[in-house]
Design brief:
mainly alpha
Length: 651
């Protein structure tokens, strides 16, 4: 057995020990249902800051993101802006959801929205969104962990064997300890995720030979690129226009990552913190105090810094380490062939068809010189993949228990019965994810494409309860249905089922964009014709409470137009159609000598708007008080709405 494999097993055992410790401790601490499902509303500031960050940025960030930058170039690196757009959703909704949950004792988003709208239909739709989000999303993460260990053990562990084995420990600590165990394990997983990405970026840059060699290599890479944008630029360093009128994103000239695609793809990733699971994360906190530092400093600044530098270096730098055989043949002088000319003499993508293969190959570069580091970085990758999955297991199990079992079948279920049902729910969800991942990886890919786009369809319902009482029960319910249908029909699954005449992402608009267009449009139109005075009076109980406790002071109300302007400008030029300006503003894509900062113009533009995005998040979270602690204390009417129901005329 090779030294790297021994070290891999050593670090995995240490990591598993930590996970199981918190599973046991969480089980001993969880005396009530709310203890188990939302950590007794007692998660502390730094635990949430790290845990929510780990949950937001999954194994995809660690494994898939660098590979797609390798394949699609710096236009895909615009996806790194999810370091800002994911917590942007949190800025808009988390504080207000926490206040509502604390006030009225809600444990799940289904309970919150069904009480607000006085409808069980929305409760069921929330559970459906949670399950469709959780099962495929979890399956993708678990299968990726099996794939990683198959590669790094040189085939000793089969993909499916590794996947099931690695999942067993996750089931144990999540099912036993609930959300508190997930949170404390996530704190370490966050550190491992961030540290691992930085380490692999440094390894890549060191093997390339430094930033000078990297820029020289990128300039050479653009000269052999045959995939050009409509403006004649290499697809590696230029967005292919604002929009392209094609029936599938894959048919776009120069790649699918147009300005409008980047914008709507960011919409999809905003679905991570609007997904039902994050509502339960909000409910689990002692106070909103952790929200602003998590959203601004941990996510937007720290993770953004890591993605725009270290992840971009991993993706682009791998071309100059032997993964790109075409470049090796044309410009051997810019290649340090430590990967041996791709795999089996073939280009990395040609040999595997999997962009996720890139990071394991980068980790393997240290197999001879530092085998212990291979083991440690492997556990970093494993932690990244399990961080998100664990949270969705726990929260989905809670929703199955509270919104289905307790609400419909066992309304008098005691705390012990609810905890047992939650644990069974976790096992069922994981087994469903493992079954899909084992039996059909194609189905997993199709369903996985729906996950985050489905999560984003929760935005109108959250807008309604947090900000805008105009939206009615019928409007939000029908809008959510319309949005889910639109997402499904503009993903690959629609074409696979033969029910659409177009492909995935028509007009280079992501399915999340199509979904929210039909969702919010339907919600507004239907609400226009379904206004009801009694329903409005009921909803205003919530909104009056929010205005009293979370309203912006009069001294700051003049800042509202500025906040709107800053946000709209950032979305338009940072991650939207205006981003096409970044192709050339700091130098010509076809002449490296004109690169103003010594890097491609598109990369400089991304770094500029990342820094401006951090300012935007600070302005919204702190200055506009969207994520700060309310000036007035929130008095809880009850700890758990499942124990004591309020009078029928109250929410």
């Amino acid at each position: 057995m090779e030294a790297k494999v021994i070290w891999l097993f050593v670090f995995v055992l240490l990591y598993w020990s930590y996970c199981i410790f918190w599973g046991v401790k969480g089980a001993l601490t969880a005396r009530t249902a709310s203890d188990y499902f939302i950590a007794g509303r007692g998660i502390s500031i730094w635990v949430f800051v790290l845990a929510a960050t780990a949950t937001s940025f999954s194994g995809w960030t660690f494994m898939g993101h660098p590979g797609l930058i390798y394949r699609d170039g710096l236009p895909y690196a615009y996806a790194s802006f999810y370091a800002i757009t994911i917590p942007f959703t949190g800025v808009m909704f988390l504080k207000r959801q926490w206040m509502i949950g604390k006030r009225f004792g809600f444990v799940t988003p289904g309970e919150m929205l069904s009480d607000y709208f006085r409808s069980d239909s929305i409760r069921l739709l929330v559970v459906i969104v949670a399950l469709v989000f959780s099962v495929p999303y979890l399956g993708v993460q678990l299968r990726a962990s099996g794939f990683l260990f198959n590669v790094l053990t040189d085939g000793m562990l089969d993909v499916n064997v590794g996947m099931w084995l690695l999942s067993a420990v996750v089931i144990i600590y999540v099912a036993s300890g609930g959300l508190r165990a997930v949170a404390y394990v996530d704190t370490v997983q966050c550190i491992l995720l961030a540290g691992g990405i930085i380490a692999i970026g440094i390894i890549t840059l060191n093997n390339v030979g430094g930033m000078g060699n990297l820029m020289e290599g990128i300039a050479a890479l653009t000269t052999i690129d045959e995939k050009l944008t409509p403006a004649g630029y290499s697809h590696y360093i230029a967005i292919p226009g604002v929009i392209q009128f094609v029936d599938a994103g894959a048919k776009a000239t120069g790649g699918a990552w147009t300005g409008i695609m980047v914008l709507t793809y960011m919409f999809a990733l905003m679905g991570i913190q609007s997904a039902p699971a994050f509502t339960m994360w909000a409910f689990s906190n002692k106070s909103p105090k952790p929200f602003a530092p998590q959203q601004v400093w941990a996510s937007s600044f720290a993770i953004g810094l890591i993605l725009f530098f270290f992840t971009a270096i991993q993706g682009m730098g791998s071309h100059f380490l032997g993964a790109d055989t075409a470049l090796l043949a044309a410009h051997p002088e810019v290649v340090n062939n430590v990967m041996g000319g791709g795999l089996g003499g073939k280009d990395l993508m040609e040999a595997t068809g999997k962009q996720g293969m890139l990071v394991p190959q980068l980790i393997n570069l240290m197999a001879d010189t530092a085998p212990w580091l291979v083991g440690l970085l492997s556990v970093c990758a494993l932690a990244a993949m399990q961080s998100t999955g664990a949270a969705y297991m726990s929260t989905a199990g809670g929703m199955l228990t509270r919104d289905l079992l307790k609400h419909y079948l066992m309304p008098d279920a005691n705390h012990a019965q609810q905890k047992l049902a939650g644990r069974i729910g976790v096992v069922i969800i994981v087994l469903a994810a493992l079954f899909v991942a084992t039996v059909s990886s194609d189905a997993l890919v199709l369903l996985g494409g729906l996950a985050v786009a489905y999560g984003f369809q929760m935005w109108p319902s959250l807008i309604a309860i947090c900000w805008w009482p105009y939206l009615t029960r019928a409007g939000v319910t029908l809008g959510l249905v319309a949005g889910l249908i639109a997402v499904t029909l503009t993903e690959s699954i629609g074409q696979k089922l033969g029910i659409t005449g177009w492909g995935r992402w028509p007009l280079t608009i992501h399915s999340a964009g199509w979904g929210i267009l039909f969702n919010l449009g339907t919600a507004i139109i239907v609400s226009r014709f379904t206004q009801n005075a009694d329903d409005l009076a009921h909803k205003m109980v919530f909104h009056n409470f929010l205005r009293e406790h979370a309203g912006l002071p009069e001294s700051k109300r003049h800042l509202i137009p500025r906040a709107w302007a800053i946000t709209l400008v950032w979305f338009m030029f940072g991650i939207g159609p205006g981003a096409v300006i970044g192709n050339t503003i700091f130098g010509s894509p076809v002449d490296a000598a004109t690169w103003m900062f010594g890097i491609p113009s598109i990369w400089a533009w991304q770094i500029l708007w990342w820094s401006l995005g951090v300012f935007m998040m600070w302005f919204l979270a702190y200055k506009m008080e969207l994520s700060t602690v309310p000036l007035r204390d929130v008095e809880a009417l009850q700890e758990d709405i499942g124990d004591i129901r309020l009078a029928p005329d109250k929410p």
